[in-house]
C-alpha cells in the first residue's frame, strides 16, 4: 500500500512537472492572437464547465454553497490571479524567463506555511534545497551575453511575483477549507479562475472578443492543449498533491517548470540553450532532490515525535 501511494505521488509530480512546464509554450501560441486574460478565461471556463458536467454524469451530487465558495475562492487565487499574471507576462518576456520568475514560489510557500499555517520550521535540508534552487535561478538571471542586451520589464515581472504569492497562499489554505470531492474541487476552481479572468478581461481588454475573428488552427490547438492537458490533467494532479503531499514538495514544480519550458523552447521554436542554461538546469534539479529528501526527513522526524 505504501509503495502504491509513493508511485501515485511521483506520478502526479511528474505530470505537474512536465505538463505545466509545457503550458508556457501553449500560452505563447494562444496569445499570438488572443489577449492573455481572455485566453485564461476561455481555458478555465470551458474546462471547468465540461469537467463539472462530467462529475455530475459520474453520479456526484451538487456541492453545498459553502463548498462552492471555498473551491471558487481558491480557484480565483490559483488559476485566476496566478495564471492571469503568467499569461500577461508571457506577452512581454520569453516563456523560460517567465517560468523562471515563477520559481520563487517554493520560497513563498515555505515562508507562508511557517508563519501562517504549519508553524513548523522546515528541515535544514529543505532550506539548503531552496537555497540551491535559488542559486540555479540566479545563474539563469545573471547578467551576461543574452540578458545584457534585453532589459527585463519590471511591471510584468512584478505581476508574476504577485501571482506566485497568491498561488502559494491559495495552495496552503486549500486543505483547511470545506471542499467538495477532488474532481469537483478541480472543476469549481477552474470555474472560479475563469470567471475572475473573464471579469478582468472585460475591464482591461475591452476589444478582446474581436480577436476571435483572427483565430487560426494553431490558436485552436493551443487552447485545446491548455484545456485538456493544462487544466484537466495538470490541474487535477496539482489538486491531488495539495491534499496528499507536503507544501515544500508540491512547490518543487516551480523549479522544474523553467527547465521544461527552456527545453521545449529549444526544441520547438529553436531557442538557443546555452551552456549557462544547462548548468543552471542541473543546479535547479539538484535543489529539487534536496527538497524532496528534506521533506522525507521532516516526515520521519514528525513520526518519531
TrEMBL record:
Cellular component aspect of the GO annotation: membrane
Domain EamA: 14-141, 157-292
Membrane topology: Multi-pass membrane protein
Alphabetically ordered keywords of this record: Membrane, Transmembrane, Transmembrane helix
Entry annotated with the keyword Lipoprotein: no
Pfam families per record: EamA
Spans through the membrane: 9-31, 37-57, 124-141, 153-172, 184-203, 223-241, 253-269, 275-293
InterPro entries linked: AA-Vitamin_Transporters, EamA_dom, EmrE-like
Cell compartments where the protein resides: Membrane
Family: Belongs to the EamA transporter family.
Full protein name: EamA family transporter
Amino acid at each position: 500500500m505504501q509503495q502504491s501511494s509513493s508511485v501515485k505521488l511521483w506520478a502526479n509530480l511528474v505530470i505537474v512537472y512536465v505538463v505545466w512546464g509545457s503550458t508556457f509554450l501553449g500560452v505563447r501560441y494562444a496569445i499570438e492572437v488572443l489577449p492573455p486574460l481572455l485566453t485564461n478565461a476561455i481555458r478555465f471556463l470551458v474546462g471547468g464547465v465540461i469537467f463539472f458536467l462530467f462529475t455530475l454524469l459520474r453520479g456526484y451530487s451538487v456541492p453545498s454553497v459553502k463548498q462552492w465558495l471555498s473551491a471558487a475562492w481558491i480557484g480565483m487565487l490559483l488559476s485566476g490571479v496566478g495564471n492571469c499574471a503568467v499569461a500577461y507576462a508571457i506577452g512581454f518576456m520569453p516563456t523560460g524567463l517567465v517560468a523562471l520568475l515563477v520559481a520563487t514560489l517554493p520560497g513563498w510557500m515555505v515562508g507562508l506555511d511557517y508563519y501562517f499555517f504549519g508553524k513548523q520550521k522546515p528541515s535544514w535540508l529543505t532550506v539548503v534545497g531552496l537555497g540551491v534552487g535559488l542559486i540555479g535561478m540566479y545563474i539563469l538571471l545573471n547578467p551576461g551575453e543574452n540578458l545584457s542586451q534585453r532589459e527585463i520589464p519590471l511591471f510584468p515581472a512584478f505581476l508574476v511575483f504577485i501571482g506566485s504569492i497568491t498561488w502559494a497562499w491559495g495552495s496552503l489554505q486549500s486543505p483547511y477549507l470545506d471542499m467538495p470531492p477532488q474532481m469537483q474541487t478541480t472543476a469549481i476552481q477552474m470555474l472560479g479562475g475563469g470567471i475572475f479572468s473573464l471579469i478582468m478581461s472585460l475591464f482591461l481588454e475591452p476589444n478582446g472578443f474581436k480577436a476571435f475573428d483572427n483565430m487560426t488552427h494553431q490558436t485552436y490547438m493551443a487552447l485545446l492543449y491548455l484545456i485538456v492537458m493544462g487544466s484537466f490533467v495538470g490541474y487535477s494532479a496539482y489538486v491531488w498533491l495539495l491534499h496528499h503531499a507536503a507544501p515544500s514538495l508540491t512547490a518543487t514544480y516551480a523549479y522544474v517548470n523553467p527547465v521544461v519550458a527552456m527545453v521545449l523552447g529549444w526544441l520547438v521554436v529553436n531557442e538557443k540553450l546555452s551552456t549557462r542554461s544547462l548548468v543552471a538546469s542541473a543546479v535547479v534539479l539538484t535543489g529539487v532532490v534536496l527538497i524532496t529528501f528534506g521533506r522525507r526527513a521532516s516526515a520521519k522526524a514528525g513520526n518519531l515525535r
